[in-house]
């Protein structure tokens, strides 16, 4: 942390430490945009939390993030960029920061999208994906269908 604070000296960056519960929700909701540049995020809990707080997300199209923000939702509920393409990431952040209307509409859509998600639905989706994968594997291994 000390190294990061040194790198950001003189910039409007705040290092808050760890938040939980309502304090965490308020912190997310106070942001204008949430940037997630990780190329190896598997679940993307912070992306889910940001979207649920009505904050537009700009994230790398990698790991589990495209499962949270599928192609047909890009630009509607949040924005994805090509992993490693910092210029594209910055352009999308600037696009959101320069338009309050866009930021609000994307944030609203993100929150609405998250209202349709729950653990039961997510678990069912994962279960169905595992079943489909196992079925395909079995069919290829045995040469059978159905």
TrEMBL record:
<dbReference type="GO" id="GO:0046510">
    <property type="term" value="F:UDP-sulfoquinovose:DAG sulfoquinovosyltransferase activity"/>
</dbReference>
<dbReference type="Pfam" id="PF00534">
    <property type="entry name" value="Glycos_transf_1"/>
</dbReference>
<dbReference type="GO" id="GO:0009247">
    <property type="term" value="P:glycolipid biosynthetic process"/>
</dbReference>
<protein>
    <recommendedName>
        <fullName>Glycosyl transferase family 1 domain-containing protein</fullName>
    </recommendedName>
</protein>
<feature type="domain" description="Glycosyl transferase family 1">
    <location>
        <begin position="15"/>
        <end position="112"/>
    </location>
</feature>
<dbReference type="GO" id="GO:0046506">
    <property type="term" value="P:sulfolipid biosynthetic process"/>
</dbReference>
<dbReference type="InterPro" id="IPR001296">
    <property type="entry name" value="Glyco_trans_1"/>
</dbReference>
<dbReference type="GO" id="GO:0016020">
    <property type="term" value="C:membrane"/>
</dbReference>
<keyword id="KW-0328">Glycosyltransferase</keyword>
<keyword id="KW-0808">Transferase</keyword>
<dbReference type="GO" id="GO:0009941">
    <property type="term" value="C:chloroplast envelope"/>
</dbReference>
<dbReference type="InterPro" id="IPR050194">
    <property type="entry name" value="Glycosyltransferase_grp1"/>
</dbReference>
């Amino acid at each position: 942390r000390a190294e990061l604070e040194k790198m950001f000296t003189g910039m409007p960056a705040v290092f808050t430490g760890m938040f939980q519960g309502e304090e965490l929700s308020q912190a997310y909701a106070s942001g204008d945009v949430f940037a997630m540049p990780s190329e190896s995020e598997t679940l993307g809990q912070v992306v889910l939390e940001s979207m649920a707080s009505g904050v537009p997300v700009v994230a790398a199209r990698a790991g589990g993030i495209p499962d949270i923000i599928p192609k047909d939702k890009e630009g509607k509920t949040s924005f994805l960029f090509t992993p490693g393409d910092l210029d594209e990431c910055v352009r999308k952040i600037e696009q959101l920061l320069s338009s309050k209307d866009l930021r609000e509409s994307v944030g609203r859509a993100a929150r609405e999208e998250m209202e349709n998600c729950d653990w039961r639905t997510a678990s069912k989706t994962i279960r169905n994906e595992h079943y489909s994968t196992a079925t395909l594997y079995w069919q290829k291994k045995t040469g059978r269908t159905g």
